[in-house]
Design a protein that fits this description.
The complex is a heterodimer. By secondary structure, chain A is an alpha/beta fold. Helix content of chain A is 34%, strand content 29%. In chain A, strand 1 and strand 2 (17-27) form a beta hairpin. Chain B is mostly helical. Chain B is built from 15 helices and four strands. Chain B has a four-stranded mixed sheet, with helices on both faces. The longest helix of chain B is centred in the middle third of the chain and has 32 residues, at 178-209. The two termini of chain B are 22 Å apart. The chains are: A alpha/beta, B mainly alpha. Chain A binds chain B through residues 51-53, 73, 76-77, 79-81, 83, 85-92, 96, 100-101, 103-106, 130, and chain B through 2-3, 6-7, 10, 13-14, 17-18, 209-211, 213-220.
């Protein structure tokens, strides 16, 4: 089957800064694909290039089988884009916003689909509200409904859950999961690792480079070793001690450290003794499977 | 086509929903017109005058009453001495002062020329020169009256030889009132303010909130976007012209001598330029504040100063006069004054109209290309 998106060595610079340095990956059809990375990693730049809003300096991009940006006009009705900030008409109502987007895509019979979408996003009560008066979460759902009204085959969502409350966020994910029944590919960017678990596949991006592309499980398997999660005080001291001993990889998370036991002589006992000898009090210690976050930090250190 | 109509519908919906914008378009032009109608008055009917009569004779009183009776002057003070008179001028209470020397009657009776000093407050040169004109005419007609009286007293008949008298007829604006001259050109001013400001604001607003970018991902073409934005403001501009004309005709009683439909047609041609300029401002402004300032200083102010609306072009330095050739409002001011005051038709105004049309096309095409480029 043909890929929804295929990228080969895509580069983009802003003056001296390398925003994207040689991006290559494929996105299969009918999945939720996540582009995961910290702020400033190049997520928005990549999405904007894929939507045709920016031109890459180099590289080959094919979207739904069409070459970008040459054949861009052929796919405009097939793609939807939700930008990072709310960009609909705040002085139009929910209904009017959806109607306008439908019309400029040449969709005349949108009424039934609109009812369906408002039902689906549980926005029916608010259809006569001005978009500017909606809450952050509802705005995001409206924006999603607007992009879905013309049934695009490929949907780009740039950090749709950033700044949205946890309840709305959860609801948003449920709506997205329900979408997959509709023959649609969703390409989504997020800085939140915990959200990445929800994607069928993810690409980890940092500093304009792709660190890995795989399923969440596949990414986690990149760390085969056991992870020790140690809650202790002072955590920073613990981090420094283990880090200086040089044998194991250690990651600091607030009041705890995660130690990936990968050194030749590494063992739980060695770490515990090391901490005790250096005056670190251990409150809790457990063995766990590596999380995506562990894997990401691990990959990051590896690439550095 | 369909997309353009959808755009216009959306634009009108947004416009009607914004009470501030609504007020700007419908109320501001009317208020502006009413204020300017009363304020734009350069006529001088009541020159405040001080008189220092050092002679205090029959002749000097006669001379003074000639001024009082002329209807142009109102004497605010008969000064006792020179410094009192000076003070009135300094304080701005009097525009002119007349000083009659103590030998006024003596000189007149002995057939010599009597000099009368007239002092003007020249800080407003325009006013002073108008007042000077009045003084000249009163003084000279008084002079000739004395002359004829003398002849008659001496028993000599004035020969009925050919003399020349110029009889003045003022056409188009018989009372020479500034208001009749100024008000029609306010149509142009209102059109500029509304279309340049509103067009640029509406586009920049979309850029600010990000909807412009959102539209780029849709199949909407740049030309559809431009037309969808400009056409609603064309309609709004015509509504404003209608309002301004209504106030002009029904409130100020200025009759439109020419064809009203031709006037609307010319307004449409003029709007090619103003909408184009609005579009241009939107391509150089990142925020709505920037758009406001840019349209005020880059478009509206130069238009007002260089179009002959505020100052006559003939009295500008040559080099500035050349600059005025590219000011669309210059041609529109000529056209609208011509239609309203003189009843001119396309036969008289074709040149101005063609230039206006060409300017409009050039501005609009240039701005559209810039806009298209800014979208990529």
């Amino acid at each position: 089957m043909e890929s929804a998106i295929s990228l080969n060595n895509v580069k983009k610079t802003y003056g001296e800064v390398n925003a994207l340095s040689g991006i290559t990956f494929e996105v299969k059809k009918n999945i939720i694909f996540g582009l995961v990375g910290p702020d400033g990693a190049g997520k928005s730049t990549l999405i904007r290039i894929l939507c045709g809003l920016l031109k890459p300096d180099e590289g080959v991009i094919r979207i739904l089988g069409k070459e970008m940006p040459k054949d861009y006009n052929m796919i405009k009705d097939d793609i939807g884009y939700l930008s990072q900030k709310f960009s609909l008409y705040t002085d139009l109502t929910v209904d009017e916003n959806i109607e306008f987007i439908a019309q400029i895509h040449g969709v005349k019979k949108f009424h039934e689909r609109r009812d369906e979408l408002l039902e689906f996003t549980r926005m029916k009560k608010y259809r006569k509200f001005l978009a500017g008066n909606l809450s952050g979460g509802m705005k995001q759902k409206l924006a999603l409904a607007c992009t879905l009204i013309y049934k695009p085959k490929l949907l780009f969502l740039d950090e749709p859950t950033t700044g949205v409350d946890p309840v709305s966020r959860r609801e948003f994910w449920l709506i997205l999961a329900g979408l997959l029944k509709e023959d649609i590919t969703v390409f989504i960017s997020t800085p939140y690792m915990e959200e990445a678990e929800r994607f069928n596949e993810i690409a980890l991006i940092e500093n304009g480079k792709i660190l890995a592309v795989d399923t969440p499980a596949g990414i986690k398997q990149k760390i085969s070793n056991t992870v020790l999660e140690i809650v202790c005080t002072p955590a920073r001291k613990a981090y420094e001690v283990i880090s200086d001993s040089g044998d194991d990889e250690v990651q600091l998370f607030g009041d705890r450290v995660n130690v990936i036991l990968e050194g030749k002589n590494s063992s739980e006992d060695r770490v515990v003794n090391l901490l005790k000898n250096n005056g670190v009090t251990i409150q809790d210690l457990r063995k766990s499977n590596p999380s995506l976050e562990n894997a990401f930090i691990h990959l990051l250190k590896e690439s550095a | 086509m369909r997309a353009i109509i959808d755009f216009m519908v959306k634009e009108f919906l947004q416009f009607l929903r914004d009470p501030k914008m609504f007020a700007v378009v419908l109320i501001a032009p009317v208020i502006q017109l009413v204020f300017l109608g009363y304020a734009a008055n350069r006529d001088l009917n009541d020159v405040k005058t001080c008189i220092l009569d050092n002679d205090r004779s029959n002749s000097s009183r006669d001379f003074i009453s000639a001024f009082e009776k002329s209807g142009y002057f109102s004497v605010i003070q008969y000064s006792e001495n020179y410094s009192e008179l000076e003070r009135e001028i300094d304080l701005g209470n009097a525009l002119i002062a007349i000083v009659i020397p103590d030998d006024f009657e003596k000189n007149m009776n002995s057939g010599k020329t009597s000099n009368v000093q007239v002092i003007f407050d020249g800080s407003d040169g325009n006013k002073a020169s108008v007042a000077a004109g009045y003084v000249m005419s009163v003084a000279s007609s008084y002079g000739s009256k004395i002359f004829i009286e003398r002849f008659e007293k001496s028993g000599i008949k004035v020969p009925p030889a050919g003399s020349i008298e110029s009889v003045t007829r003022v056409w188009y604006n018989p009372d020479l009132t500034t208001r009749d001259f100024m008000l029609p050109s306010i149509v142009g001013l209102v059109l500029i303010i509304i279309t340049v400001n509103m067009t640029s604001l509406a586009i920049v607003k979309e850029r600010e909130i990000g909807t412009l970018e959102q539209l780029l991902v849709t199949p909407v073409k740049p030309y559809q976007l431009i037309l969808g934005k400009l056409l609603p403001f064309t309609v709004i501009g015509l509504v404003a012209v209608t309002l301004v004309l209504a106030v002009m005709i029904f409130w100020f009683g200025i009759e439109v001598k020419g064809s009203i439909s031709f006037l609307f047609f010319c307004s449409l041609i003029f709007m090619l330029s103003t909408l184009g300029l609005g579009l241009f401002v939107s391509t150089v402004s990142k925020s709505q504040q920037q758009a406001m300032v840019t349209s005020a200083f880059l478009v509206i102010m130069p238009m007002i100063f260089l179009s002959g609306f505020a100052f006559p072009i003939e009295s500008m330095p040559k080099i500035i006069q050349y600059v005025t050739y590219i000011i669309p409002l210059k041609y529109f001011t000529v056209i609208i004054r011509g239609i309203v005051l003189k009843g001119l038709t396309i036969a008289d105004l074709w040149l101005e109209l063609s230039i206006l049309f060409l300017l409009g096309v050039v501005i609009l095409v240039f701005s559209s290309l810039r806009f298209k480029k800014s979208m990529e």
